[in-house]
Specification:
Elements lengths: L13 E13 L2 E8 L13 E6 L18 H5 L8 E6 L2 E4 L4 E8 L2 E2 L2 E2 L1 H8 L5 E6 L12 E6 L4 H10 L6 E7 L14 E7 L9 H8 L8 E8 H13 L7 E7 L2
Parallel strand pairs: 10-11, 10-13, 11-12, 13-14
Antiparallel strand pairs: 1-2, 1-9, 2-6, 3-4, 3-9, 5-6, 7-8
Helix pairs in contact: 4-5
Bound molecules: flavin-adenine dinucleotide (FAD).
Flavin-adenine dinucleotide binds next to strand 4, strand 6, helix 2 and strand 14.
């Protein structure tokens, strides 16, 4: 069996872009917009389309990128001397707009802290200067429901909100199911476009010290999972993803009908 998701491109392409602007969306999200002529060739598939984001850490601001051969690039990335190696992490396309010969792409970055400081991508997102170089390596989509799906169950914490937002927007208008979205604060609850038959449940954490994923898992426990034709997509903090999958299997859902992915690890 392949180690790569089914809907990942066989020859992913690297796209070059520049920061166009950045703005706060809610207490925990910063939206950064990229733009370039290269991005006009990006084949946006909607849903949870994701990519590897590269931006320079080097003091000269230069962006040195790994060589991509088929789906392989990691060894070449590690071979870049540390002082020139760009930062790399995974992000979802939150919005994409094509104009005459150029395009803009939005990323919604969770503002989270590490050792008392904003973590690397969050810090870059709030202070990025228009014109700064970035690159994106296309990774396709993870959402892959079987054709006979009659009920959708979507679960995430804030890191998977851009993915769930895209999936809810692009589901068929007659889709039926439940989306459970955990976010750090009440004010992170923003309108989502979703089919009428999908019940969207927001789970703001608010209480200080509460752990990401706990509220979403509790809500998942209470949801009825119509088997056998449900399809579940569970992403976010790694315990939410793995424990969520276990609970769904215990409820009788076949493992092939569950896409789960740890987007980060506490
Ligand atoms: C397919 C995919 C799509 C993703 N899409 C998005 C997206 O659109 N928006 C988004 O914000 N994230 C998204 N993520 C998650 C993102 O890749 C991780 O949060 C990543 O760790 C951020 O990189 P960093 O360099 O800022 O932090 P890291 O250096 O990786 O981590 C620093 C510290 O922060 C902690 N940490 C990491 N992420 C979080 C978090 N979300 N909340 C709290 N603590 C955290 C880690 O435990 C670590 O201690 C996605 C992940 C995947 C796999």
């Amino acid at each position: 069996m392949s180690d790569f998701p089914r809907l990942m491109p066989a020859n992913p392409r690297m796209f070059h872009a520049r920061v166009a602007g950045t703005r706060r969306m809610s207490p925990s999200f910063q939206r950064i917009t990229l733009e370039s002529t290269d991005l006009a060739e990006f084949h946006w598939r909607g849903l949870d389309h994701w990519f590897r984001l590269f931006f320079p850490l080097a003091s000269d601001g230069g962006l040195r990128l790994p060589e991509v051969r088929g789906r392989l690039w990691w060894k070449s990335y590690l071979a870049i001397p540390e002082e020139q190696r760009p930062h790399c992490s995974n992000y979802t396309v939150a919005g994409y707009r094509r104009f005459d010969g150029r395009a803009e792409l939005d990323i919604d970055v969770v503002l989270h802290w590490h050792e008392g400081k904003l973590a690397r991508v969050a810090s870059w997102a709030v202070s990025a200067v228009p014109g700064s170089p970035v690159a994106l390596l296309d990774q396709g989509v993870l959402f892959d429901p079987p054709d006979d799906t009659t009920n959708y169950l979507l679960v995430s914490d804030e890191s998977g909100l851009p993915a769930l937002r895209g999936i809810l927007r692009d589901l068929p208008a007659d889709a039926v199911g439940t989306a459970i979205i955990e976010v750090p604060a009440h004010d992170d609850v923003l309108p989502v476009e979703a089919p009428e038959g999908v019940h969207v449940r927001w789970m703001p954490r608010d209480e200080p010290g509460s752990h990401a994923g706990v509220a979403a898992l509790r809500a998942l426990e209470a949801v009825e999972v119509p088997c056998p034709a449900s399809y579940a997509f569970v992403v976010g903090e790694s315990t939410l993803a793995t424990e969520g999958r276990r609970r769904l299997q215990r409820a009788g859902l076949a493992k092939e009908r569950i896409t789960f992915s740890g987007f980060w690890k506490a």
